[in-house]
Design goal:
single chain, alpha+beta, three-stranded antiparallel sheet, two-stranded antiparallel sheet, 5 strands
Length: about 90
């Protein structure tokens, strides 16, 4: 899976924004923190959910199960707006 080409990332200070281009079905802006930024960076290339979880575990302290759930939640929300290609 990877970030859909109709969505671009914009970083501003400690915030990462996912912005749809005009051809996207979703109209709005998604705002994320540092951990969401890492997930989105992973989604810049073809990856799997487990690979993202592994990267997150390397970068952040926390239990594997909590990080896995958080990654699944973010991916689920991105899928809902059509921001992820499988």
């Amino acid at each position: 899976m990877r970030l859909n080409h109709n969505f671009i990332l914009h970083k501003m200070d400690d915030m990462t924004l996912v912005v749809p281009v005009s051809s996207a079905d979703f109209h709005g802006i998604v705002q994320g923190n540092k951990s969401v930024a890492v997930i989105l960076e992973c989604l810049q290339h073809n990856t799997t959910e487990e690979e993202i979880v592994n990267v997150m575990c390397e970068k952040f302290d926390g239990s594997h199960s909590v990080i896995k759930k958080d990654v699944a939640d973010v991916i689920s929300r991105l899928k809902e707006i059509g921001a992820i290609d499988e």
